[in-house]
Amino acid sequence: MSGEQKAEAKGEQAKGKLKETAGRLTGNERLTAEGHAEQAKGDAREAKEKVRDVFKR
């Protein structure tokens, strides 16, 4: 996985976790859902890059 892509995926996951936590603390269901979706997007990006790495070998 390229360093830049990995950093983007991790950043997206962290941002999503922060939004989800803020949403839970404030009782904002929309913010919680957005955070969860961003985490999932980051997870998917990370998985995609791992698959690419496997096929590059």
Task: Give a structural overview.
The chain is mainly alpha-helical and 57 residues long. Helix content is 91%, strand content 0%. The chain is built from 2 helices and no strands. It has helices at residues 3-26, 29-56. The longest helix is centred in the last third of the chain and has 28 residues, at 29-56. The protein starts with a helix and ends with a helix. 11% of the residues are buried.
- State the order of secondary-structure elements, H for helix, E for strand: HH
Helix content: over 70%
Low-confidence stretches: none
Q: How many strands, what sense, and barrel or not for the largest sheet?
A: none
User: Number of helical segments?
Assistant: 2
Tally of extended strands? 0
Mean pLDDT value:
91
Tell me, what's the shape? elongated
Strand content: under 5%
Name the structural class: mainly alpha
State the separation between the terminal residues, measured CA to CA.
12 Å
Q: From the alpha-carbon coordinates, what is the Rg to the nearest angstrom?
A: 13 Å
**What kind of oligomer do you see?**
single chain
Give a brief rundown of this model.
With 57 residues, this protein is mostly helical. Helix content is 91%, strand content 0%.
Please name the defining characteristics of this protein.
mainly alpha
Question: Mind sketching the topology for me?
Answer:
Layout: H1 3-26, H2 29-56
Helix pairs in contact: 1-2
